[in-house]
Fold these 3 entries.
Entry 1:
Amino acid sequence: MGLSFHSNKESLYLQVYDHYKNLIMEHRLPAGSRMPSLRKCAAELKLSRTTIENAYLQLAADGYIIARAQSGYYVTDIAAQDPVSPVSRHSNLPPVKYDFASNGVDHESFRFDLWQRYLKSSLRQSERLLSYGEPQGEADLRQVLADYIRQRRNVNCSADDIVIGAGMQSLLNILCPLIRDKKTVSFPNASFVQGSTIFADYGFDVRYRNKDCDVIYVSPAHMTKWGEIMPVSRRMELVHHASENGSLIIEDDYENEFVYFQRPTPSLFNLAGGHGVVYIGSFSRLLLPSIRLSFMVLPPSLSRQYAAVAERYSQTASKVEQIALCQFIRDGHLTSQTKKLKKLYAQKLKELKNVVQNIFGENCTIQTGAAGTSLALTVPYTRTGLELKKEARMNGLSILILEESADTITLLLSCSSIATDEFEPACRLLKSNLI
Amino acid sequence: MGLSFHSNKESLYLQVYDHYKNLIMEHRLPAGSRMPSLRKCAAELKLSRTTIENAYLQLAADGYIIARAQSGYYVTDIAAQDPVSPVSRHSNLPPVKYDFASNGVDHESFRFDLWQRYLKSSLRQSERLLSYGEPQGEADLRQVLADYIRQRRNVNCSADDIVIGAGMQSLLNILCPLIRDKKTVSFPNASFVQGSTIFADYGFDVRYRNKDCDVIYVSPAHMTKWGEIMPVSRRMELVHHASENGSLIIEDDYENEFVYFQRPTPSLFNLAGGHGVVYIGSFSRLLLPSIRLSFMVLPPSLSRQYAAVAERYSQTASKVEQIALCQFIRDGHLTSQTKKLKKLYAQKLKELKNVVQNIFGENCTIQTGAAGTSLALTVPYTRTGLELKKEARMNGLSILILEESADTITLLLSCSSIATDEFEPACRLLKSNLI
């Protein structure tokens, strides 16, 4: 073959990938035809077998070719299909162009290369990966987390009081059976579906904003979806009231990292001196949402109760990811990533507010808080929210509806998944759907 | 520096790693001293920065050096500590030399390099990883799983009926609330702690071997820990009885891949025509135990109920690992890994039985089944099991006690984590502890 590949090593396999992808999409390698063997292809292109294999694996991952055991790779019928990405091939909807609804992580901010290196380093600890993980979570990660939250949130605890799990629900599935003597639980509002679902599953009576419940679930840096935070005075009040009533507080410290426009507020765990508060932290807004890793800090009495049953619950979080995260935090990357994201989101949110104000003008009301990555926008609208949502989606816009009345609608607009220079076209498109 | 590194590319960073590890352990780089910067070290050794960085990351992962933000890497006090591996540094016990208790995966059998390539390929799908996963599990993995279990276990279902989760307990945490009208659950015996814990947490009345319960949990290829399997006649009987009584069967198909000495038996799900049976599968015995990935197949009525609440439960399994596994199965590696392990374990178990027979002679009773990776060994012993366990552990032996009477003890010996040529020394060491 008369091909020349640039010797930029990083992307050599991608050049091979592109070469074959084009041949396939242009029907020059028709569906069903067999790909050259790795050896033959490597010899022809004068590249290493590994490079070819990486290219083939990527082609297979993206649906261009398929492996048949003991036979080789074959071209799929992808070229005959419609030209959307292979992942969304099953749906009839156009791809999402602007995603206002996502609370994912900013596309530019996550260093995949860095995280990949930590995962690779973790995979090298083969002995450790050949056994099941510790039920409570890997000991070294728990130690690192204890240090981290002591420094950043004044949460003083030992690694023994920390339980790791694959997301907040996994932790509540361990906590709820421990507190089965309690009957009622209060949530800030109905939007905390994930938490309230688990409590309801265990037979708790779920209420809203009721400080006399046996369990009080709060998210002090995320009181509303548009980033209102709980002032210190109310934090103190809550801690005292709960202590007098013997209620347990569950402090979900979600997005505490993104409190921009005032000084960071102390954690309830710290204000309560570590008693009567379960502290929950997670990394979905700091790393990848697709990494399922959360942790809870149990107060002394619950920690003792947990220790007695710990062996009965298997760990849910991936051990590879736990090991990688441990080293990632040790090396200071979580701290720098948090700093970077905080700065970025503060700027983006401010800019989004400006753009919305300019485009929607006097007819709109904007609510913002001191934290988070979203603002709430209320505009006149007379049709149903469902209609708006469908129509917007057909136009490539993903939106989240907070509230609707007969003549207005309130949307939650997140700045995290849209690039700053796309705020304007995205808002204009949104406006055209609202008419 | 007058060093020469072999140009075998794979291990270049490991050579750098070893070089520094030795300097540190020989106190030639004392605790607290700063490591040369990446740039400087790369220039001196005439190697790439990436190679040096990989070596440093590995040194840090193993506790030889530690990163300080914006400053560089520093040597830890590891050389002053006792010479056990950094991971087990906190414990006073000697390292485990022979692990009879583990149901991990055979050390030689898992291809880390291959799995690493799939994880890397998965990490390249950055757009996909920047959002939360589908609550039910990634659609393409569910499709691949549906195809896989149809081919291998005659379980006919659609991808819509499959729910993915981080381990069996995560799945039961979704299933139990769906079947809250049921009150009693039967398990084969008391060793199924992980399953029975979750049912008890939701208020179920847990019983053993009681076929008149509302829910019947069985593991047909793992009726006892030493691999007894449920014969087809009893499977048929169970399915009929459950159908007449309106009981729900939960079929945990654990280790069905390791049925050696007879033909593979049909799944209950298949025998029941897909009604009244929840099928649970997992990969901990086939891939890495540290990968938390299980799935359940819901029968039509439960699948509809689940669909109505699916959005309330967030996915627990890592998205990166889901994407990697999907492609790994598509490319036929799960099939070949299963085949390889089945052959290997059948040989190892047979050999372990021979060695045990030779060493323990007439004084012992050996129980084996038609499946699994373990045998049960009963020998005369008059002290307590706890004493034996402690003493064996001090001698570097990890064992699992199944039963004890006044003058005998029954141990479960797993062949999976010990190499075949170590069966003899391991059994001799065990015997010396039993005297």
Note: The first helix of chain A runs from residue 12 to 25.
Entry 2:
Amino acid sequence: MSEAREVNGAQKKAPMREVLAEAAFQLFLERGFERTTVDDIVARAGVGRRSFFRYFPSKEDAVFPDHESCLADMTAFLEAASDESDAVDVVCDAACLVLRVYSTNPEFSVQRYKLTREVPGLRTYELSVVRRYERMLAGYLRQRWVEATDGSLRAEVVAASVVAAHNNGLRSWLRSGGEGDAEDAVDRALRLVRRTWGEGGDGAAAPEPQQEDVVVMVATKGAPMWRVIQRVESALRDG
Amino acid sequence: MSEAREVNGAQKKAPMREVLAEAAFQLFLERGFERTTVDDIVARAGVGRRSFFRYFPSKEDAVFPDHESCLADMTAFLEAASDESDAVDVVCDAACLVLRVYSTNPEFSVQRYKLTREVPGLRTYELSVVRRYERMLAGYLRQRWVEATDGSLRAEVVAASVVAAHNNGLRSWLRSGGEGDAEDAVDRALRLVRRTWGEGGDGAAAPEPQQEDVVVMVATKGAPMWRVIQRVESALRDG
């Protein structure tokens, strides 16, 4: 850090990590990701080579400098969540923390999106980051649904649904060039997940059978009333 | 290929690709993935270095030698699927093609699972393979649901659900050491997806309102029968 302060005397406020990430990203845009070396980056940032690796394990990490702190925020968010709240709502809200990383800096996010499309190594890196979020959400749901027979399966399926919906909303915003409201796009996408998997949703986790158990019955509009009632009765009986 | 035939005169029946994959895998188990070089692999297989790269772009590819042909099978399967069938059933069935790649060779699959847990590079590679399957399933669903307002979102969320359920079943089978029935484990996991997202499922894609529209009604087991019927009637009326 002392090195950072010396070299960046003129811009004391920007932390070294940010300075490096910015220098790296400018170079990736100018020369391409593959053709930029760590030496190029530290030269541009005006620091020593070891400084880079103090902050980033690899060149790829410098492209996504905010995910580690976002993962930490998500951990804290999930730990603080009340067991009273709908578990699916909690993970949807947690996913929105990721969105904020993108939406606070639209221009950078859109440029990075384009860069990531072009560099297979970055796409792979992004996949592994996304997977870490997904595992974290699944871990939370698994613990909330520990009593359910299919809790672990359901946790993984719902976490995957949340991530897919979040990314669908995020990507449509990125593809639009960062125009419009990112949170709105993601909220709309997550609505399908909340509606389907959330408590009171149609695919909600089934608790152990109780008097208050929920019965779902499906009928076609063309069905005669007697058949509908017959099926309601049998559903209420067999649960 | 002529090179392959010369060198493997004694075992003409094993195609060169298989011989290389087998040699590679044995070495990965013996020495570890990182410590095995392509030179080691070709030496063990008794062929020239270029032969390796003729079949596999990288060392990682040799660990998963069947995925390219499985992706091709899946493409053919989806292209041949009838538009009359439930789109969610089609993608669940397509996912089972992947399972078969694992279940036909339990011992190899279990060993590879353990190897993959230990080598971050292989996990990342696997993620990108899984992502290709997911994109293929999403592409099929998108085209089936092209008329629905939320078709593209739904396609991505359902594809992610299918992959998550498939992998949950597959992993539980792999963790058990390949004991028991893999297809059964995956079938059970996919049931949640079919039930939730399939036609007639609770979270099914909503077509434009029609006379045949499906009505879903939810009641608590404690509710009196008259209230249940009242709600069925109103649901049938208002859809």
Note: Residues 2-62 of chain A form a domain with the Arc Repressor Mutant, subunit A fold (CATH 1.10.10.60).
Entry 3:
Amino acid sequence: MHALNLPAPAGKPRIVVIGGGFAGLNFVHKLDTDRYQVVLLDRHNYHTFAPLLYQVATAGLEAPDICGPLRKSFRGKRDFHFRMLQVYGIDPIRREVSTGAGAIQYDHLVLATGTRANFFGNTNIEAHSLPLKTVPDARNLRNHIFQTLERADLTDDPVERARLMTFIIVGGGPSGVELAGALSELRRHVLVHDYPDTPMEQLRFILVEGGDQLLAAFSDKSSEDARRNLHDMDIELRFGLLMTDYDGRVATFKDGTTIASSTVIWGAGVTGEVIQGLKSESISRAHYVIDAHMRVQGYENIYALGDVAYLSNEEWPQGHPGVAQVAIQMGKRLAGNFNALVRGKETKPFKYFDKGNLAIIGRNRAVADLPKGLHFNGIPAWFVWAFVHIFYLIGFRNRLFTFLSWVGNYITYNRAVRLVLEPTLEEELRGERGGIR
Amino acid sequence: MHALNLPAPAGKPRIVVIGGGFAGLNFVHKLDTDRYQVVLLDRHNYHTFAPLLYQVATAGLEAPDICGPLRKSFRGKRDFHFRMLQVYGIDPIRREVSTGAGAIQYDHLVLATGTRANFFGNTNIEAHSLPLKTVPDARNLRNHIFQTLERADLTDDPVERARLMTFIIVGGGPSGVELAGALSELRRHVLVHDYPDTPMEQLRFILVEGGDQLLAAFSDKSSEDARRNLHDMDIELRFGLLMTDYDGRVATFKDGTTIASSTVIWGAGVTGEVIQGLKSESISRAHYVIDAHMRVQGYENIYALGDVAYLSNEEWPQGHPGVAQVAIQMGKRLAGNFNALVRGKETKPFKYFDKGNLAIIGRNRAVADLPKGLHFNGIPAWFVWAFVHIFYLIGFRNRLFTFLSWVGNYITYNRAVRLVLEPTLEEELRGERGGIR
């Protein structure tokens, strides 16, 4: 039996980090690896700039524009070791994590596993709807959108076509709002031109929200701006609707409403990616409970960061928001504390610096709540948004190319990436003409 | 029962074209659709610039750089109708093709279906090796390469690691040579830096060719230049070897040689994508036999173009080469003939204008045979190659972005697209530690 290939940490403490998202990435980046060995584990070999996933889903950007290969990001970083692995469990007594390729010992463990889509136990919705949490999700959704329109173009059955041309977006948070806006622009600038034989006026995008407003975490003014903008862009908005079932053809809601649709995009909730093995007191509602030093409750040498962590204090009694800035700042703070510790300096508790909220709804349509109650919309908000996103993208190539892609798309409305790259309709169409779904 | 949605050809003949490759694309582009209705069918909704697939496979370019959405390419073309469909059969008596979504009538039928990988009936090799004929193939190969290296990085079993780090390329034609060169550069500029914990000196790329030279269709001087260049780039060259079996772990050859390898890239042959329904006299060795007017033998209104066609004449007694230029020129000639016919002008027989052969082996390494016996290698050949490819790419965005990607990669050696975007190792690794394949 051979072991997992990993160099011993020569006299230094080994820190194992699980997850290469915003939190893990910023932690590793800032950590002084002259004093610590760091092992980064992730199921994927790349970091995802998640706030732009909706652009990959709507053919505005390609995956490499918003992804950074993790090995490349830390090339040259001393005593840094990446392993592409799924972690199945934590053994806090033996101080090791179990993976598909063997156990890995740690001195300190940093959990930065983020979240996944939450279907609240509804297996039908889980089986038939499309989440938008990962790059494969985004590409899958893009393929689905274009493949569904190709199907709509093939049939002259008006009922079937209407169903194929109805798209439901569940959840009125930033990603639902941004996705709805991007779909509206895709319709206007691409789809109506690409499908001259299909009655594109039948194309419906329905944004369904359980509450009574969009962007609940934003200011009332921004929520209202978002509502008005999406309305102007022919997005149908339905409030107070809770989806209870979806079989791939018909969506059913709690109040009895039904909508025939081939596409449900699920953004109604997330849950923490909790790994088994810690005490139950460490976990609350699928999040690791941490203190201001990011220590998981009940452990001295286990930490949690970002979306999977739950940190409640006076300012944020319900916990911190699940946004990139919290993850980035936690990662930097924890690494700073490790660096301070080894030099005998004092560590500092985490304090979130809220830089505000931004959502883009379309070209020249965006909303922004900045600190001190500053509120933007329209073109100024779009510029702030573009600047912020370019700034936080990983790596020069990504920044340059994403910027060029945006400028190119802005000028030409040319979305070159609208390719259906998955296997074709063949299997489903063969011998099942009437049954196109 | 509803029918396939397709407008009737108002008093004009309908031409149905199967396949949106070089031949079909150029045919449609040149056809006068004031006088003909044209219906283009393809399994995919995009055109592939196949000569650059190896760059997608080796993380030099992303799929949208070498693909053009077919609907976009012909946006604004009068009476042009694209349908994303698989065609299952031809009924020349009823003059219709059968598809998964119903039958389509034609007045003229143009077969431009191209080729697929030929495994010569060896189902083991087919099941375990990786072809490089389509964009999904290329992305699949890229994922496989990086995933295999991630696996190599996980194990300290030297036998297992050696197998994971041995890559076999079968076939010494242009695509095998170009792929081998690109892999060598990937090793030198990316892999040795990305995998500091893996003994990269064990990484082997073996190019296996059944004959006794590379680039058999090129001049002897170019064949020899290619051999020398690949040798200098640490590609192992094995001539006179015919693979007879591959089970995913060990490749076996006719002379009894075996090589332990997790990766066989199959480029040893292609076969025509022939659709059933035509007389047997129309088909010879999986190609449609055509005359100088591209008419399929035995039919007045059925034509074949490009790689799937077999046209023998005095100059090319063994048939024309299966290269993009033949397909492009056939497509243009046939459309020109259709346009002439409707104006009462004379049609012209096809005559191939051979523009020469080009293969890129690496930065500053390329070989070119131009007409009149002109022969290039090194940097001048690379420039010719880059110019030719940029020139034939579809669409301004693709040309611009591909050019920028190349320049960017050239300067920075930064291959941002080395992402494993398929599902992770999880499934295969779970509970099967020793059995990583």
Note: The CA atoms of residues 102 and 406 of chain A lie 43 Å apart.
